[in-house]
Amino acid sequence: MKSNSSNIDEIPILIKTANSITNDHVHVTEPLNYTTYLGLDSLLSSLRCLSHVDRSNESSLPVHDEHFFIIIHQAFELWFKEIIYEIDSIRDIFGNNDDVAAFVFDINLRLNRIGKVWKILIDQLQLLESMTPMEFLEFRDFVTPRWLEKIYDETSFNFCKVYEKAVESMIDHDKQEKIQNGIDEQITEKEADKAKLQFDEMINEEKYNALVNSNQRRISHKAMLAALMIAHYYQQPCFQQVYQIISLLMDNDTLMTSWRHRHILLVLRQIGRKPGTGGTNGFTYLQATLK
């Protein structure tokens, strides 16, 4: 909280303000205190309400809940900035180090932190839910206008062939078991063929790359195989920490999806299918982010 006694114990010092995206620094010489260090003057003055209780009088007070709405969304943006900062630092580790083993502990700590931030963001949606659609509509009109690949390359055994044999054996075993249990042989054959086709699209590099090119897959074929290998051999000492990284990434993806889903439901409740406050087409745009 910003103190009224902000001039107490001021220390002249060179303040460096880091930019989380470019990693540049702005050098400013000014007295260092709680207010200047956190940049509270610029931060707190960035909240500007645009609405008016009396639409015919621009000097009238803003609609009460607009202040609340802006605070919540500014808090969201600050937390998003922190998430991006942590993710960029992890990407930097993988991009600038051939051997990341020494950094695995830090990576896991940062991924855990990101997960906790997502939980806070999900909880913060409950605050917005305290505002009724009618209260929101009162002011809405004023504001509407590559490391996995390396792991796979360094593996001494042919995981792909071993895994392919194991899957084919499993599919055939399941097929025979279903037939023995009296399930229609023709249906069973079709299910087995479908399973083999789906597996082939994953294991066959050319077919997998076609899915990548059509945006149905996001990581490279080699990275996918590495993740698959780690998931199967996670108990091996060499894979335990890396498996934790993958698990934390999946946890964070789940939390992010949960936040998006909750946010979409909130938007639908508040404004239905009207255009969003950010100039997007609202619900339809947000729904597309889940795909």
Automatic annotation (TrEMBL):
InterPro entries: Trp/Indoleamine_2_3_dOase-like, Trp_2_3_dOase. GO terms for molecular function: heme binding; L-tryptophan 2,3-dioxygenase activity; metal ion binding. One of its GO terms (biological process) is L-tryptophan catabolic process to acetyl-CoA. Coiled coil: none annotated. This is Tryptophan 2,3-dioxygenase. It comes from Adineta steineri.
